[in-house]
Fold this sequence. Notes:
The structure holds 2 protein chains of 2 kinds.
Chain A: E1 4-7, E2 10-13, E3 19-25, E4 31-38, E5 42-51, E6 54-57, E7 64-66, E8 76-78, E9 87-95, E10 98-104, E11 108-112
Parallel strand pairs in A: 2-11
Antiparallel strand pairs in A: 1-3, 3-8, 4-5, 4-9, 5-6, 7-8, 9-10, 9-11
Chain B: E1 3-5, E2 10-14, E3 19-21, E4 24-26, E5 33-38, E6 44-50, E7 56-58, E8 64-68, E9 73-78, E10 87-94, E11 100-102, E12 106-111
Parallel strand pairs in B: 2-12
Antiparallel strand pairs in B: 1-4, 3-9, 5-6, 5-10, 7-8, 8-9, 10-11, 10-12
Amino acid sequence: DGGITQSPKYLFRKEGQNVTLSCEQNLNHDAMYWYRQDPGQGLRLIYYSQIVNDFQKGDIAEGYSVSREKKESFPLTVTSAQKNPTAFYLCASARDRDLTEAFFGQGTRLTVV
Amino acid sequence: AQSVTQLDSQVPVFEEAPVELRCNYSSSVSVYLFWYVQYPNQGLQLLLKYLSGSTLVKGINGFEAEFNKSQTSFHLRKPSVHISDTAEYFCAVDGGADGLTFGKGTHLIIQP
Lengths: 113, 112
């Protein structure tokens, strides 16, 4: 079955450590997105990529980095520069720029202690 | 630039009663509007979307929404809610290359 997979579902890290969240899709979608979700804040865009080897900063990119070496994969690294990394992270993909058919992963809850 | 305002952070309603979740938007690009539902610790599931045509859009789980261009609104409604409808609901507008712009969400609380 086609879909978008985020792993792990729960992740714990010590303060000051970098951590990478995985996002894989087998939908043959060109566009992929990372959102951060905090209570009462909705979803805020971190980074997005419209094509392999290219990505753009979203509204809250500071303290995060991404790569897009393969069409299927768009990993997000939360670096030690991110001041408040504890949050729920959602990955999404869409065919080209057609967001009318966007799919979301199940999310990764990151807790930094 | 586009923005979405969900006027209510929480909406409590009794089971089998009707509900309306409000959403207002502003957008400088083509108006594609969406409602998503999120159950605890899950991703987002598309409830319905407005792309063009009829302003009344029907979605899954008995939900519907009406696009009102003059009031820049896209309110979500259900005539009779169930306990299983308890979730967070997000309104979103298509921002083009920048992806979807979301509202802050409305927590629907169904009381028995």
